[in-house]
Design brief:
- It comes from Chitinophaga varians.
- This protein has helices at 22-35, 39-49, 59-83, 89-115.
- By secondary structure, it is an all-alpha fold.
- The chain folds into 3 domains: 19-54, no CATH class; 58-85; 89-116.
- It starts with 21 loop residues before the first helix and ends with a helix.
Amino acid sequence: MARPRKNESEKRTLQVNIRLTLCENQRVTELAKSAGITPANLIRQKFFSGRFPVVKHSPIEIDLYRELHKIGVNLNQATHRINRNEFPGEYLSILIQLSRNVNHAIKLLVDDGRSG
């Protein structure tokens, strides 16, 4: 499907160039990225409306969300495989050892609380 044609009055045909310092350019780029728009659209919106666009998410939140999503997908896949008994046999011995370690740590913590 082709992109709809714009009226002549809606077309952006004129170009205005500005010079920015490296620091200013980085700031504009980061603000635009956090708002999910291009730097040109950020400047245009700020200039004509007097306000900055709404920040959708900070880049850190987006990266954190993606990482958490990947972990969740992996956890779901592992859970499905375990529920279908499709995990390798060596995992069972690892799980048993981990369970022993957890129980030992809990015992140490509980006993430590009683001693003093």
